Description:
Elements: H1 2-30, H2 46-52, H3 55-69, H4 73-87, H5 93-124, H6 127-148
Helix pairs in contact: 2-6, 3-5, 4-5
Protein name: Heavy-metal resistance
Organism: Poseidonocella pacifica
Pfam families: Metal_resist
Amino acid sequence: MTKDWTRKALLASVAINLLVLGLVLGMVWRFGGPERDDRRPPSVSGALYTRALAPEVRKDLHERMRARVGTGEDRFEGYAEMIEALRAEPFDPEAIRTLLTEQSLDAEARMAEGRQVLADYLATAPAEARTAFADRLEETLDRITKKKR
Length: 149
């Protein structure tokens, strides 16, 4: 009974710590200081662009991404390593930091590939497709901004 409770408490604590770490890293990345001119604008998100794509285009770009960066199964190996590190005795906080950094760098590399795939598509898309994409993007942004008001 105590072992089960302890395990749940540990997992909850780790989850909360990872959430806080993610928030802090996100804030540092977004508001990193005046030397960080390479930040994307606050309102730009890959998810907005993905939602605005026509379903068949989204599927095609997803396949292109898989061809460029793989299926992502290797990302799950990182989680398995994290699970091992969390259970390791003695516990090594530095191993956790290293794994989180590696996962963050991997995610950024995948996002960069996604941006490139989208940019390549838009560079070759016919005007009608770009206009339809712009219309769907505008509709998505309108829905989001209306929710915030």
